[in-house]
Design goal:
seven-stranded mixed beta sheet, Rossmann fold, alpha/beta, 10 helices, 2 domains, about 325 residues, Quinone Oxidoreductase, Chain A, domain 1
């Protein structure tokens, strides 16, 4: 089958990658769409030393496996848990000690014609949600994890840093809380999109220090954490949505003195994301910047790596 895979020779497109063999509990998926994420770009640079097929944002059709799944149009969570470790038994499978992560760690991903995946992590796509919308389910679920894990009052002042692919989704989710949301932008097209959704677009230099109840860092840059510390108020909260390229340098003494809560945030509730898409609460269409066939996957990855680029899709 065709696939875009990381090998010892680097990122490679191949037409003869081995077709996945089903394991107990798995179904075979025919991939329909896949989205390129910043994590995919970091993996190419050497993050986690991953080898295999990239891709963890996808829509697919079940073509083999349990009868109740056959023909279903689905999205899938990225964490494939063992089900028996202490964290799994405590109901935290996303932090399973033995987990595989689709397209990221010990599990092939969706930049291919087919993918074998446990049915336990699948979610059916509602009939009214298109493939173009559903391909955002995984990052949108990650955005919903912010309000799953953090209490937000409608009276809060929220600042989001990093209005890129994930940041645009996070900003829309945060706006649903009724709080005042401001998003830091570097480019005019970011500001236009945010203003279209009724979200304030601002420059970092124009924001007051130590005033925000909540700061969300989606920059993916080591300087994002330091900027968040400058913006958050005493006893405020910083939510880190970034996997940083490089080690952040920040004055952690301020976190102690100002009693700042720092929270890492990763994967989130798919059901909430799919409901939001079904009911038109989140606008994804303007976030799609380009589409490429899988055979042009190498070009697609180069396009996605350009600074300021929003979502690039692979179509199978």
């Amino acid at each position: 089958m065709r696939a875009l895979a990381l090998t010892e020779q680097g990122l490679t497109y191949t037409s003869d990658y081995p077709t996945p063999v089903l394991q107990p509990g798995q179904v075979r998926l025919k991939i329909r769409r896949a989205g390129i994420c910043n994590t995919d770009l970091e993996l190419v640079k050497g993050y986690l030393n991953f080898r295999g097929v990239l891709g963890h944002e996808f829509t697919a059709e079940v073509i083999e496996g349990a009868a109740d799944w056959l023909g279903a149009r689905v999205v899938g969570e990225i964490n494939v848990a063992c089900g028996v470790c202490d964290l799994c038994r405590e109901g935290i499978p996303s932090q399973c000690r033995e987990r595989a992560t689709v397209g990221i760690r010990n599990h092939d991903g969706a930049f291919a014609d087919e993918l074998a995946l446990s049915s336990s992590v699948l979610h059916r796509i509602p009939d009214g949600v298109t493939d173009d919308q559903a391909v955002f389910a995984e990052p949108l679920a990650a955005a919903y994890q912010i309000i799953e894990a953090t209490h937000i009052s409608p009276r809060d002042e929220i600042i989001l840093i990093g209005a890129g692919k994930l940041g645009m989704l996070c900003a829309q989710v945060l706006k649903l809380t009724g709080a005042r949301v401001r998003a830091v932008v570097r480019r005019e097209h970011q500001a236009k999109l945010l203003n279209q959704w009724g979200i304030e677009a601002v420059k970092l230099a124009d924001l007051p220090h130590n005033r925000a109840h909540l700061v969300v860092d989606c920059t993916g840059e080591s300087g994002g954490f330091a900027a968040a510390l400058d913006l958050v108020r005493p006893r405020g909260t910083i939510v880190l949505k970034s996997t940083y390229d490089g080690l952040p340098q920040a004055d952690l003494t301020r976190a102690v003195v100002d009693e700042i809560k720092i929270m890492g945030s990763r994967c989130g509730p798919f059901a909430a994301a799919l409901r939001a898409l079904e009911h038109g609460l989140i606008d994804t269409a303007p976030l799609i910047e380009a589409r490429y066939p899988l055979s042009d996957g190498l070009t697609a990855m180069q396009a996605a790596a350009q600074s300021g680029t929003l979502k690039v899709l692979l179509e199978m």
